[in-house]
Amino acid sequence: MNKGTLIGLIILIIIIVGGYFIYKNSNSSTPNPATNGGTSAPLETTNPNAALPLMATTTPAVKEFTVSGKNYSFTPNTLTVKKGDHVKITFVDTQGMHNFKIDEFNALSKTLKGGSQDVVEFTADKTGQFQYYCAVGQHRAMGMWGTLTVTE
Ligand SMILES: [Cu+2]
Q1: Predicted confidence (pLDDT) per residue in 126-140, tens digit
Q2: 52 plus 66 within the same structural domain
């Protein structure tokens, strides 16, 4: 092997190695546009969040009911409100000694004699079905209860 072929071989190696790095760099640069596209995607997910404040602007409504009680039932025995409603119930006792109670909302009227009434107020801050009942004696077990449904 003479000097001429050795230099030629070195030049050839330089061209091959240099060509490899140029090829590799051009390859590794192609994923960059994809990652740029990926970083812009999370910006689009902020748009659904922008709609949430609109839903939160609904003003709490006042729902008023009159519920009458006698031995041993409530009329009506079902009430339905929406979550967040302020509920105002006028409990009218038409016969016997009764009250109106909902444990989950800490709602309790005075214990009344027939012919009197009391107002119970609370905010329906959770969804579900809740029992309202008379807490006097065994009246609840005797059927003096109803169902308050709080919807979303
Ligand atoms: Cu009762």
Answers
A1: 999 999 999 999 999
A2: no
